[in-house]
Amino acid sequence: MRDVSDMQRWPELRALGLLVALSGGAQSIGQAAEAVGIAQPNASRSLTGLERELGVPLLTRSPRGTELTAEGQAVAEWAAQVIDAYSALNAGTRAIQEARAGNVRICASLTVAEYLLPGYLATFTSAHPGIDVGLGVENSAAVVAEVRAQRCDIGLVESVSLPPGFPAAVIGHDRLMIAAAPSYGQTWTEPITAEALAGIPLLVREVGSGTREVIDTALAEFGGATIAGEYRSNSALRVAAATGVAPVVLSDLALRDDFRAMRLAPLPVADDVDLDRALHALWSPKRRLSQGARALLDHMIAAQ
After folding, report:
1. What is the largest CA-CA distance in the chain?
2. Contact (CB, 8 A) for 172 and 115
3. I need a surface site. Which of 9, 104, 274, 285 has the fewest CB within 10 A?
């Protein structure tokens, strides 16, 4: 194993680059600074600090310019090897990033995966045929866990609350609706308040889903939703509601076809029932997005 215990005393890379530039033909510290891309005063300080750290005279300064001492020439040759090694490291990591750019894994909550993501992916893959997108479908809590464990590049969630410290962006909006079989809806003609809604048994998604979090938050003052049935599937909820078991709470995205076919009818709610929500993409703060993941994120933001 290589000994890295003394790294705090190693010279900075920028100072070594200045030394290599001087050995490669730069006639002054100003020219070396220009080659490295820093201001001359900063370059002078870096070289002075390097001489002090190494305890070796590296430069001779005269009206004709700056030249390397014999010791400076030797150090510059070793410094060139360090610069070459760092260049190889940089090139290697870029190659890894470019390879990752062609393979993006996303995890999406159920509503986003079923009703929003297909349109996004259709236009994205048409514009970026070289990027392969893999998809996992979970509820919002499980998606956050996947992102936290860095098992996916981007997570798409419906949750009201987002994990602190995680970068996120809005990629869409929807609204939860209360829906029921048309026969049930005939008895529910006036907008219902949050307090009254909290007392009505509802068909809901499981704890951990963004849909469940939104309805529980909207009714939190009155103890949350009363549960008539709990399902992990949007389709199962829609079928159960259509049989007249109880009203269902789902995204308007999930209910549109049922409304058009008149299998379900929307039920009016009062303004104090806040069922609007933003849909978010989030990713790990510990890992930089690949080029492909960034391209997909930008596409979803622009397409909403």
Report:
1. 97
2. no
3. 9
Q: pLDDT for 254-285, tens place per residue?
A: 999 999 999 999 999 999 999 999 999 999 99
State whether the Cα torsion 74-77-80-82 is positive or negative: negative
> How far apart are the C-alpha atoms of 41 and 30, rounded to whole Å?
9
Q: In a 10 Å sphere around its CB, with 0-12 CB exposed, 13-18 middle and 19+ buried, how is residue 179 labelled?
A: buried
This prediction's pTM: 0.66
Q: Which residue has the higher pLDDT, 212 or 91?
A: 212
Q: Quickly tell me which residue has 């069922």 as its tokens.
A: 275
The tens digit of pLDDT for each residue in 220-232 reads 999 999 999 999 9
Let me know: does 113 contact 142? Beta carbons within 8 Å: no
CB under 8 A, 24+ apart: contacts of 50-54 = 50/11, 50/12, 50/15, 50/16, 50/18, 50/19, 53/9, 53/11, 54/11
Interatomic CA distance for residues 61 and 177, integer angstroms: 78
Domains and CATH numbers, the chain: 8-96 (1.10.10.10), 102-171+279-303 (3.40.190.10), 173-277 (3.40.190.10)
Beta strands in 88-207 (DSSP E): 103-109, 132-138, 154-157, 168-180, 201-205
DSSP class of 128: -
Helices (H) and strands (E) in the chain, counts: 13, 11
pLDDT tens string 174-198: 999 999 999 886 777 789 999 999 9
CA distance 36 to 38: 6
Strand pairing class (103-109; 248-251): unpaired
Residue with tokens 């610069």: 83
Report residue 169 as tokens: 């962006």
